[in-house]
Amino acid sequence: MSAARTIARWALGAGLVFAGTGHLTFARQSFVAQVPQWLPLPVDLVVVASGVVEIALGLALILLARHRVLVGWIVAAFFVAVFPGNIEQFVRGTDAFGLDTDLARGIRLLFQPLLVVWALWSTGAWRAWRTRNARERPVAPAR
Length: 143
Fold this sequence. Notes:
The relative contact order is 0.15. By secondary structure, the protein is an all-alpha fold. The protein is globular and about 60 Å long. The chain contains six helices and no strands. Helix 1 (3-24) runs antiparallel to helix 3.
């Protein structure tokens, strides 16, 4: 694993720990703004649970280097799973995290795929998947 990937993995892990801590403390109300109204769970439960998951995933990125590929896939799936919350904030026009215009909320939506790519690249998950698929792909017989 290259130093750049390791630093990127640690930075993503630290960011998740910070965001998860925000769910539980100083940014709780802002995260409430992102819980989809259609979700059949208490809003505060979703905010707290997702914060705990973010902290756990952040620590896993930092501490579980041996399992980084699996953790990378799980973190990427988490970013996909919470994307409806970002869409909800955009659709409802809810101000939170300093996103107080439709343009700002729309730009925020564009960054979620980058987080998915960051998780897959920094953990080597994407590379591992490509390598495995290349090995399993049948080779056409020579003519």
